Amino acid sequence: MAFSRDFLKALSLTDEQVSAIIQEHTSVTDSLKAQRDKAKEELESVKKEAAKVADLEKQIEGYKNGEDYKSKYEQAVADHENYVKEIEAKETAEKVKTAYRKLLADEQIKADRVEFVLNHSNLADLKLDKDGNLENADSLKKTINDDWSIFKATVKERKQTVPTPPDGDTGKGMSRAKELSMKFQRERYGVKNDAGKE
User: How far apart, in whole angstroms, are the C-alpha atoms of residue 32 and residue 112?
Assistant: First the structure.
């Protein structure tokens, strides 16, 4: 959902609050776009590497029919197995990285700091369980909170007071603006009088 300034101002937010919301929304969307672009690049790389596997398999079939087929065949098989292991290792590393990125988000690390934390964390020793979740997640959460708490997002609650318009000087008592304001407060907040008390 895109936030426009007009939409936010219609919610009776100040210019400062509107700017803060727009800035935070922009930083989050920019981070998500960067992650999407990186994922596309990695997908293209995996596709190219998969094509190399098919070429190796063709070479193996060719070596089977050659004069020195045995040594060439064994070398090709070894190359193929090593290549498959390399691909599997890359895929596993990417799955670990994705799971750790989710764990960072769950621990309230700011979106624009997640990549920094990933790049400065030792992910080589992390392992996934059969469900694709990180093993020793509780220990990892403690480490995240000990080492990266400075990057945790904090939420501050602000109480907003709704101003009550003054009485009108029409001689008829309450102004139309005040009447509408009090009706809104009653319906929305359960306020029973213009002093804002239940």
Answer: 9
Q: With beta carbons less than 8 A apart as the criterion, state whether 173 and 167 touch.
A: yes
Retrieve residue 125's tokens: 């020793």
Please, how many CA atoms are within 13 Å of residue 15, restricted to the half-sphere of its CB? 0
- Please write the tens of the pLDDT for every residue from 76-123: 888 888 988 888 888 888 888 888 788 788 777 787 877 887 777 777
Please tell me the distance from the alpha carbon of residue 193 to that of residue 178, in angstroms, as a whole number. Answer: 11
Q: What is the pTM of this model?
A: 0.40
- For the chain, residues with pLDDT lower than 50 are 196-198
Alpha carbon distance 164, 188 (integer Å): 14
Greatest CA separation for the chain: 112
**What pLDDT score does 161 carry?**
66
- Among 37, 34, 19, smallest CA distance to 111 is for 34
* DSSP bridge pairs for 128: 134
Residue type at position 167 = D
